[in-house]
Amino acid sequence: MKMTKSALSKQRGGENATVRLGAPWRGRKIIVSLLAVGMAAVAGCGGGNTGPHTMSGNRIFEQNRPATVMIYAEFSASPKLVRPVLTDSAIKKLVDKVVTEESRGTIGTDTASFDNAAVEELSANIFDYFTPSNDPGDFLLEPKGFTQSFIGSGFIVTADGYVITNAHVAAPGDDVLKDGFSVPFAQEVAAYELNAWFKVMNDLTDKTLKDFSAAFAEYAYKKMDMGKTAASFTAVLGVAASGGDTANKGIRLDLVMAGDPAYVGSQKDVAIFKMEGKNNLPTVDIGDDTALQTGDHLYVLGYPKVATINDFLKPGQTFEPSFTTGQVSGKKTMQGGWSAIQTDASITHGNSGGPVFNDKGQVIGIATFGSIDEQGNEIQGFNFLVPTSILKEYLQKAGVKPGESQTTKLYSLGLDAYDGGHYKIAVTYFTQADNLFAGDEEILSWKQNSAQKVQSGADSTPFFYCWINACPSGS
Questions:
Q1: How many distinct structural domains can be found in the chain?
Q2: In a domain, 467, yes or no
Q3: Within a domain: residue 119?
Q4: Consecutive H or E run containing 416
Q5: Of 6, 60, 231, 385, which one has the greatest count of Cβ atoms within 10 A?
Q6: What are φ and ψ of residue 148, in 5° steps?
Q7: CA 88 to CA 98: how far, in whole Å?
Q8: The model's pTM
């Protein structure tokens, strides 16, 4: 049946029915408009992000701070020195030398002049006069333990605790360690030898005693046997109280593998540690260094000693990582045939092994070494990174597959929600992250800040937020 507008109006109840016919459609239009506005409102708060995106420097710092660790390395050894002796022929040679000087009038004829001249001659040519004892077990002193310690930086790449740093943090090499052990050892044996040989010679001048001490210390350094070196490694996560203790302070690290320090071999200065007995640890995101171009911004996170452990800093404060920025200055080919990333970002002792990020918050390199002048002084602005392409070689050899942990995923979503002013959502995310990895000061701090924002009435989470965004359970 053909129905006219008039008939339709009658069928629906008159002319006014035409208005009622359109009402449900206009309601749907309003709902759709609200949803469109809602989608636009939440698009900038992180809910719609599906991949790496450019981050602010502050966000890169906050997101990666929990997974950046300070590494405390301690090495111990018991150096030994076979007792040096003066043979009869050596004593005769020494006496003849001094008598000749006396006869020539180059020294006085008094006892003090003779004694000082003899010791000065011995000091000047110590390796010509002293020889090791024929008994290899006859040590000058009973072996005594010496220790030396270093701090470095590192970053966690798996939820179960694989940590990346530099090889020279984990295995500095015998030459470097020997230098550290030899100084206190040589000083101790030199003092002992001074007392043993010259305690009855009270006419020696301060200069003569100083010269002999320096010469014998050199002898001890060159002749000492360092023996076996023991090493222990500890990780400090996030913020750790100086002189105090936290739930995550002092986690033992076991060395999985190490390449070569930057100053030897292939220079692939990478090491991998493993934290035992840990799960749900925060992690960093490993990026691709091959996409870097000269001029790209870089961000360095780590524990430079000068800004972490310094006599001028107030004692009892927390150890916090430092954050420096710079740019890619270029790529330089190393002796091992691979390319290091050059940067002008500030890097110094203690930064070694720390992560360097691109503007998407992904690790693209490991802070490794800098430049020095002829006097051995650091030259800032010419620092180098081991790229992640080299790191990935070592991860593959070790069978380690880096990946985002659930703790970091929740923590990152919490930061997204906080940045968008959705503090109720942020509290839930940070609470869930804290439940997985309890005791992290950063996660707790953000959780508390979010809760304070909610209490102050600052939350701006729209009622339809969870219609569009994946919300945490319990929201």
A1: 1
A2: yes
A3: no
A4: helix 406-419
A5: 385
A6: -145, 150
A7: 16
A8: 0.78
What would the mean pLDDT of 336-365 be, rounded to a whole number?
Answer: 89
How many CB atoms neighbour CB 282 within 10 A? Answer: 30
B/e letters for 115-141, b = 16+ CB within 10 Å, e = fewer, are bbbbbbbbbeebeebbeeeeeeeebbe
Tokens 């222990």 sit on residue: 232
Q: Tokens at residue 43, please? A: 């698009």
One-letter amino acid of 79 = P
Q: Which residues pair with 85 in a beta bridge?
A: 131
- Tell me the C-alpha distance between 116 and 86, whole Å: 17
In single-letter form, the type of residue at position 124 comes to A
Give the mean pLDDT of 196-221.
87
pLDDT confidence tier of residue 180, bands split at 50, 70 and 90: confident
| pLDDT tens readout for residues 364-375 | 999 987 544 455
Amino acid in position 433: A
Q: Which domain holds residue 439?
A: 405-475
> At residue 13, what is the residue type?
G
Q: Which residue has the tokens 């990780």?
A: 235
Q: Which two tokens stand for residue 281?
A: 């640890």
Pair type for strands 162-165 and 146-156: antiparallel
In a domain, 433, yes or no: yes
Strands (E), 119-188: 130-132, 146-156, 162-165
Structure tokens at 76: 């111990």
Residues 6+ apart with CB under 8 A from 173: 261, 263, 264
Amino acid at 26: R
Left (φ > 0), alpha (ψ -120 to 50) or beta: where does 385 sit?
A: beta
Task: Decide: helix, strand or coil at residue 16.
Answer: helix
Q: Which of 155, 45, 234 is nearest to 405 (CA)?
A: 155
Nearest to 362 by CA among 91, 42, 53: 53
Could you tell me which residues come within 8 angstroms of residue 183 by beta carbon, excluding any fewer than 6 positions away? Answer: 217
**3-state secondary structure at position 368:** strand
Residues in the chain: 475
Q: Is residue 415 part of a domain?
A: yes
Residue type for 78, please? S
CB 51 within 8 A of CB 222: no
Lowest mean pLDDT among 12-21, 159-168, 248-257, 389-398: 12-21
